[in-house]
Each structure stands twice: as C-alpha cells, then as structure tokens.
# Entry
Amino acid sequence: MNDQELKAQVFAVLKSIAPELEEGDIVAERPLRNQVDLDSMDWLNVLIGLHEKLRVDIPEADYGKLVTLENLLAYLRG
# Structure
C-alpha cells in the first residue's frame, strides 16, 4: 500500500467517527485529536478501526506515540 492509499484508509476511519472532518483542514504536524475534536473513547474507536481495516496491531503501550497524523502514518507504515 502506498502513502496515498494509507492516508485514504486513515481518513476513512476518521470520517466514520467524525463525519464532518475535511481532509484539507488537517495539519499533519499538529495533534490530530485536537484538530478533529476526538475524546478518548472516539480516539480508541479510531485505533480499533485502523486495526480492523489495516490488520495492524497497535498495542496500548504505543498509543502515546500516535499524536499527529504524521506520527500515525509513520507508525502504520512500519
């Protein structure tokens, strides 16, 4: 999967939680939860959605590393 496809998959999951989200409004280097206004339960649902959609295990110990869209994409690429 290339970077564009990965980003599209991430935004599909984000939009399932926050349908009002506009991809162009997201700054990759800023905290994602703040930009999308996700509470902790919404963020957990995003991570679960990514796990289900991409078949990537995201251990709870790594949640703190996933702050920005940039961090999230880098993690999922790895």
